Every structure is written in C-alpha cells, then in structure tokens.
C-alpha cells in the first residue's frame, strides 16, 4: 500500500509539472536578455525504505529543459535579439498531453493497487474478528 501511495504522490507531482508547462506554453520574455518559459522536467527513482521494508518512488529532481528552444524572426518584438529573433517556450502541447494521459493512468493504477490492498487488509481483519 505504501509503494502505491508513493507512486500516487509521484504522479501528482508529475501532473503539477505538466500543468505548469501547459500554463507557460505561451510565455515569451519581454526582453532579449531573458529566456522564455522553459519546460520543466521531473525525474523519479526507486528507493528502498527500511522502515516499510519496501521500495517506494521518490522525486529525484526537477530541472528545466534548455534544449530545442524555438526562435522566430520577429524584429519588431520587444524580446527580439540584435538579429531580430525571439526565443519561444520549448513546450510541445502534444507531448504534454500525452504525458498527462500517462501520468493519469499511472495514478489510477496505483490507486487501484492501494484500494485492493486496503480491501485485503479489511478482509483479513474481518476474519480475525470471527
């Protein structure tokens, strides 16, 4: 149950990052010396919890993605550099949507495992009472 719970917490954090990415997909800097919104990435790892005697999922780190920053030639834009190019967010709404669907599915799967564990525990306690 604890492993499933840690998976749900990890997917909740992942969904939060995805929501932030989607919200920032149109955020362009107002000055050429600044970057636009840069996509956030989240990394997980499996950690053995000695108290639970089980593996749990933990957020390893969060980071910004500095790769594939699209630029457009817009010389009149306030964020245009000396050559007339403006940097735009590197958020791909299709990828974010696919990631959201995957995170939702993972969250639901972990929820089902937690509910099954809870049901088994309840059945065990009922048998003990008899």
Automatic annotation (TrEMBL):
<keyword id="KW-0969">Cilium</keyword>
<protein>
    <recommendedName>
        <fullName>Flagellar basal-body rod protein FlgC</fullName>
    </recommendedName>
</protein>
<dbReference type="GO" id="GO:0030694">
    <property type="term" value="C:bacterial-type flagellum basal body, rod"/>
</dbReference>
<dbReference type="InterPro" id="IPR001444">
    <property type="entry name" value="Flag_bb_rod_N"/>
</dbReference>
<dbReference type="InterPro" id="IPR006299">
    <property type="entry name" value="FlgC"/>
</dbReference>
<comment type="subunit">
    <text>The basal body constitutes a major portion of the flagellar organelle and consists of four rings (L,P,S, and M) mounted on a central rod. The rod consists of about 26 subunits of FlgG in the distal portion, and FlgB, FlgC and FlgF are thought to build up the proximal portion of the rod with about 6 subunits each.</text>
</comment>
<dbReference type="GO" id="GO:0071973">
    <property type="term" value="P:bacterial-type flagellum-dependent cell motility"/>
</dbReference>
<dbReference type="Pfam" id="PF00460">
    <property type="entry name" value="Flg_bb_rod"/>
</dbReference>
<keyword id="KW-0966">Cell projection</keyword>
<feature type="domain" description="Flagellar basal body rod protein N-terminal">
    <location>
        <begin position="1"/>
        <end position="23"/>
    </location>
</feature>
<keyword id="KW-0282">Flagellum</keyword>
<keyword id="KW-0975">Bacterial flagellum</keyword>
């Amino acid at each position: 149950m604890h492993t499933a719970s840690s998976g749900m917490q990890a997917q909740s954090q992942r969904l939060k990052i995805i929501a932030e990415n989607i919200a920032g997909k149109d955020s362009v800097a107002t000055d050429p010396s600044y970057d636009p919104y840069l996509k956030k990435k989240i990394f997980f790892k499996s950690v053995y919890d000695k108290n639970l005697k089980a593996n749990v999922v933990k957020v390893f780190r969060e980071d910004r993605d500095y790769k594939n920053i699209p630029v457009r030639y817009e010389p009149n834009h306030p964020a245009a550099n000396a050559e007339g190019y403006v940097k735009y967010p590197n958020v791909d709404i299709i990828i974010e949507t696919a990631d959201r669907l995957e995170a939702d599915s993972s969250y639901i799967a972990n929820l089902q495992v937690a509910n099954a564990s809870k049901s088994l525990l309840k059945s065990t306690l009922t048998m003990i009472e008899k």
